[in-house]
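User: Reviewer 2 asked us to show a designed sequence for the structure in our supplementary figure. I'm pasting the structure tokens here. Could you produce the per-position amino acids so we can include them in the response letter?
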């Protein structure tokens, strides 16, 4: 990393920086960029983007994101740097910009879940990651004004559940054919020239992004050139991939316009009847006519070929939501969910065997079998690895896994799945108890390890009558089924509608229920800095009174903080430097952290890869 002469910027103390002011000022610039892009004012948009790229506030914010907030903040690039002190962060921020030499990325291989294949990741250096973060701050507001309404992956404020709800809205009134497809090696094969042409940005920004795309990578001690693709692992890579794939929905709508119209269906009806819903490199095309779906597939193949991509045959199929089609069973799996329509018979449920008169169908979305099997495997491994551990330790280890998974699938028809998992867990826990006490009877085991809670006599837990300690294992069926509300197609976090986005953040299915309740209590704001949480923020739970001073993990003693605010509170011993926050903390910081990236890629989402 380059060193610069000491200035007023590098002599400032990192923890005394007014981050609240910085976030507000950067967001104001991003909001103006977004609005300029919406109205098509390219000149104003470019001027504002250049201003943001030169902004000291934006440079500080980008540096903080890669050194404090991001999940991979301790991952080193080829230079071996994986953590920076306060003075080093300020020097790094001072060196950010559109000039400078790009270093190679470090190639690492991670296994793909459920297969023997491995996925390549390219890890840039800390300095390059910060520069990419700065560039993303400038580019993302522009493209959020352009992206298509049914694009959901790697975008702020959008999640898997929005894509699933979009599919439900497309098929719940009529049975349709579905092309379920995946793009083969999307990040690895994108044509650089096509991507840069589509990006269409100003020259210095174009050169910077081109240098990142063309940067070589080191695999071990060998250096290899990069001819195509955008490396996974970079801060800006998901945005570049979305830019490359932008336009898929529009070419499908243009194809719909070319279809012949009839008396009951004009061009407008044709456009609305044909749907393309994309999440990153997975997408579905939905229409009631198989010939239209086949034609749309050919159109998409041509679109992808133009940017150097193609469909993956092993993960591409055509099926029907209600009936069998060419050996394919009704329904399909998408992003960890199974989507299918079941017949509704006279006086019978949607899943009952066909008998009597069929009145119609009902659309059922539930966790797919692979997701359930993976989840139960994780639970089984935890139980097996805690055969000698105390009951409370096993409960503390299982509860986050159970609650997180059940909450993720709580927006669909998961009641039967949750009940099955409860039974499977009971069987597994019974075996666990018998292993520990082979000479005891079933009644003794039940009295020792199971208790009664709210009329339920079969709750695995320990409630001490002499103390307030309660260790209760959560059940999947305790999570309420609440339908998810799809994000508005043209909505963006950069539009400044804090009321809309604040309400959605607290209701996200990808955050734990405890955090959701705390966000509701805090009105969607950080208890430390007072800023409203955004969809990009990393949130951590903090004990107001730490456990070292007798504080317990109870609702009234837990608050939600930004990850960097939590770090600052820890560094300052629980005290604050700003008058806004004085008096809120007077105790030593708690060591226990429960982190949750709001609307970010989660460990649960890896199950659908």
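Assistant: Here is a per-position design you can include in the supplement:
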């Amino acid at each position: 990393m380059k060193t610069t002469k000491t200035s007023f910027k590098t002599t400032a103390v990192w923890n005394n920086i007014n981050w609240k002011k910085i976030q507000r000022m950067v967001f104001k610039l991003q909001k103006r960029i977004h609005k300029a892009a919406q109205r098509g004012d390219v000149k104003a948009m470019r001027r504002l983007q250049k201003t943001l790229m030169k902004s000291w506030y934006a440079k500080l914010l980008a540096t903080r994101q890669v050194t404090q907030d991001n999940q991979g903040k301790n991952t080193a690039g080829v230079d071996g740097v994986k953590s920076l002190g306060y003075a080093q962060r300020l020097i790094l921020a001072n060196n950010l910009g559109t000039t400078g030499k790009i270093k190679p990325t470090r190639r690492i291989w991670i296994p793909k879940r459920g297969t023997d294949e491995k996925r390549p990741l390219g890890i840039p250096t800390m300095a390059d990651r910060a520069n990419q973060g700065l560039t993303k701050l400038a580019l993302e507001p522009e493209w959020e004004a352009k992206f298509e309404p049914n694009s959901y992956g790697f975008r702020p404020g959008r999640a898997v559940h929005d894509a699933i709800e979009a599919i439900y809205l497309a098929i719940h009134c009529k049975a349709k054919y579905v092309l379920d497809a995946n793009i083969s090696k999307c990040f690895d094969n994108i044509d650089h020239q096509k991507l840069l042409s589509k990006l269409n940005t100003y020259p210095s920004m174009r050169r910077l992004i081109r240098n990142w795309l063309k940067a070589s990578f080191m695999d071990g001690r060998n250096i290899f050139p990069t001819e195509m693709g955008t490396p996974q692992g970079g801060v800006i890579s998901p945005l570049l991939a979305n830019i490359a794939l932008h336009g898929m929905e529009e070419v499908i709508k243009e194809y719909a316009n070319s279809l012949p119209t009839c008396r009951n269906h004009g061009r407008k009806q044709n456009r609305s009847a044909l749907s393309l819903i994309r999440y990153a490199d997975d997408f579905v095309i939905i229409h009631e006519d198989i010939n239209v779906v086949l034609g749309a597939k050919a159109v998409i193949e041509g679109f992808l070929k133009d940017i150097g991509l193609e469909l993956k045959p092993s993960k591409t199929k055509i099926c029907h939501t209600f009936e069998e089609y060419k050996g394919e069973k009704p329904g399909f799996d998408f992003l960890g969910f199974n989507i299918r329509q079941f017949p509704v018979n006279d006086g019978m449920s949607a899943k009952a065997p066909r008998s009597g008169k069929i009145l119609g169908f009902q659309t059922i979305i539930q966790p797919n079998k692979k997701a359930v099997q993976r989840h139960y495997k994780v639970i089984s491994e935890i139980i097996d690895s805690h055969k000698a551990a105390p009951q409370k330790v096993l409960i503390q280890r299982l509860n986050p896994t159970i609650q997180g998974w059940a909450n993720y699938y709580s927006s669909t028809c998961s009641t039967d799945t949750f009940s099955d998992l409860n039974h499977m867990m009971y069987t597994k826990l019974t075996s666990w108890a018998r292993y520990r006490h082979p000479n005891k009877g079933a009644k003794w085991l039940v009295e020792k390890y199971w208790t009664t809670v709210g009329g339920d006599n079969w709750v695995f837990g320990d409630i001490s009558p002499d103390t307030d300690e309660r260790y209760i294992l959560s059940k999947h069926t305790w999570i309420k089924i609440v339908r998810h509300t799809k994000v508005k197609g043209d909505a963006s976090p950069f539009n400044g509608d804090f009321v809309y986005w604040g309400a959605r953040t607290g209701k996200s299915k990808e955050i734990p229920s405890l955090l959701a309740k705390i966000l509701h209590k805090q009105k969607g704001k950080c208890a430390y800095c007072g800023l409203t949480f955004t969809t990009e923020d990393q949130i951590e739970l903090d004990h107001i009174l730490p456990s070292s001073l007798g504080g317990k993990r109870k609702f009234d003693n837990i608050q939600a903080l930004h990850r960097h605010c939590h770090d600052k509170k820890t560094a300052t011993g629980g005290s604050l430097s700003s008058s806004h926050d004085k008096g809120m903390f007077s105790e030593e910081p708690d060591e226990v952290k429960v982190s949750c990236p709001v609307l970010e890629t989660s460990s649960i989402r890896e199950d659908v890869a």
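For the response letter, you might also mention the following. The chain has 21 helices and 17 strands. The longest helix spans residues 415-436.
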